[in-house]
Write a structure and sequence with these properties.
eleven-stranded mixed beta sheet, alpha/beta, Amidase signature (AS) enzymes
């Protein structure tokens, strides 16, 4: 671990053992050292140091704002006023945001120091962070492996200490999967807990801002600061502001699992063995395991990619070379402006998903694909609501194995899409989920353990996760 936690950091600030400027300089030094890993697209060095000096000048007596002096990185699809934003795409190259996303405003209100803009797969479409128009991101634990995606830059930056915490977005696992590959905690909250105002849209009914950290308690603190109802986002509900760090139950807790998934042949044997040890420790501590057979899990990936690409096709139609963003120099008419600008501005993966989405929404195929997928999505949500009548949380893998090598799956879209097989459920159902480190695989790279909870049940979910971490010490971060 590089950062010893917000509480210890604030204690040092109060005692005068260090300053915020010292911490920002240390982060900047690590950013420079890992520059070739591609995590940062832009570093706000002068702004961060100015904010640090202002905080140091105020002093640290009394109560501190929850993120005072904490260094945070922001994914490149989150608006920050008067700063560039590209969503990892040439089509937005040079664009400067006119306003800040609600989550950025809340970071600043909580005293955070925003240190830079973090690389991501183009328009958050990818599972390896190899799809960015501005270069791939490398895993800090092994530069020949991917950090996961689409929030790979956000995960890598925390993993090598370029920031203490970071914001990503999770549409089908884009926070939890890179957290697993980089040995971090990654949280996707309930849909509607965190405002999406100022987030570049991929799949509007799936997207949620998530958080990365080395410690669960720090990630929960960050999530608490950015949560809450927002007049700019009608999907952000009144329940969004409920406390996240205090569970109303003291246990014992009921932990559900899918026996079929635990026996999945694609799973790392190390993960399976470690899971058996964790489940034994869980029961010995007086808690309960509940086997849950959820019908329809095999449809999660096809349903997700039908619905998510359909929403992407609609959301990305605004990038047409007209009002803002890239316009092809070869554009000489309305038709060539649309064709050339989009063909040259969007990368291959984005074009693939736009075409898929347009197909499933087209006349003659809408009912066969899109409408049917919506029905299955509803059934999956109903079935998980039933699951949480008999258990307090549901445990499953984050990914089948550890991080794969750069380029290993680039030419096989289906294999890449299957990287999301264990994470898309939380987005399809809108339920909260998180990934924690689950020890190393045989190659020394991290594995991840994922928990899902009932809607707006984050407090109990975090309590259960913390209890299991305490019971199984070898699942702590590398």
């Amino acid at each position: 671990m590089i950062f010893d936690g917000i509480q210890c950091y604030h204690d040092r600030l109060r005692s005068g053992q260090q300053t915020v400027r010292d911490e920002v300089l240390a982060c900047l030094e690590r950013i420079h050292r890992y520059e070739s890993y591609g995590a940062f697209l832009e570093v706000y060095a002068e702004e961060a140091l100015a904010k640090a000096d202002a905080l140091d000048a105020q002093g640290f007596g009394g109560d501190l704002a929850p993120l005072t002096g904490v260094v945070v990185g922001v994914k490149d699809n989150i608006c920050y006023k008067n700063h560039r934003l590209t969503a990892g795409s040439r089509i937005l190259e040079g664009f400067v945001s006119l306003y800040s996303a609600t989550v950025v405003e809340r970071l600043e209100e909580a005293g955070a120091v925003i240190i830079g803009r973090l690389n991501c797969d183009e328009f958050a479409m990818g599972s390896s962070n190899e799809n960015s128009a501005f270069g791939q991101v490398r895993n800090p634990l092994d530069p020949e492996r991917v950090p996961g995606g689409s929030s790979g830059g956000s995960a890598a930056a925390v993993a090598f200490g370029g920031c203490h915490l970071s914001l990503g977005t999770d549409t089908g696992g884009s926070v939890r999967q890179p957290a697993s590959y980089c040995g971090l905690v990654g949280i996707k909250p309930t849909y509607g807990r965190v405002s999406r105002h100022g987030i570049v849209a991929f799949g509007s009914s799936f997207d949620q801002v998530g958080v990365f950290g080395e410690r669960l308690e720090d990630a929960v603190t960050l999530l608490t600061c950015i949560s809450g109802a927002d007049d700019h986002d009608a999907t952000c509900t009144a329940s969004a502001g409920e406390p996240l760090n205090t569970s109303t139950s003291n246990g014992p807790y009921r932990l559900g699992y899918s026996p079929e998934w635990m026996e999945n042949p694609a799973l790392s044997p190390v993960w399976r063995q470690r899971m058996q040890e964790a489940m034994k420790a869980w029961e010995e501590a007086g808690h309960t395991l509940v086997p849950c057979s959820v019908q329809g899990l095999e449809y999660a990936i096809p349903v997700y990619y039908i619905l998510a690409t359909a929403e992407a096709s609609s959301n990305l139609s605004r990038y047409a070379g007209m009002h803002y963003g890239y316009r092809s120099p070869e554009a000489h008419s309305l038709e060539t402006t649309l064709k050339k600008s989009r063909s040259q501005g969007f990368g291959p993966e984005v074009q693939r998903r736009i075409l898929l989405g347009t197909f499933v929404l087209s006349e003659g195929y809408y009912d066969a694909y899109y409408a049917k997928a919506q029905k299955v999505r509803r059934q999956l949500k109903d079935r998980f609501d039933q699951v949480f009548e008999s258990c307090d949380a549901f445990v499953l893998p984050t990914t089948a194995g550890s991080a794969f090598r750069l380029g290993e799956k680039s030419n096989d879209p289906l294999a890449m899409y299957l990287e999301d097989q264990f994470t898309v459920l939380a987005n399809l159902t809108g339920l909260p989920a998180l990934s924690i480190p689950f020890g190393p695989d045989t190659n020394g790279m991290p594995l991840g353990l994922q928990f899902m909870g009932p809607s707006f049940g984050e407090a109990a979910l975090f309590e259960i996760t913390g209890r299991l971490q305490a019971l199984v010490p070898n699942i702590q971060p590398l």
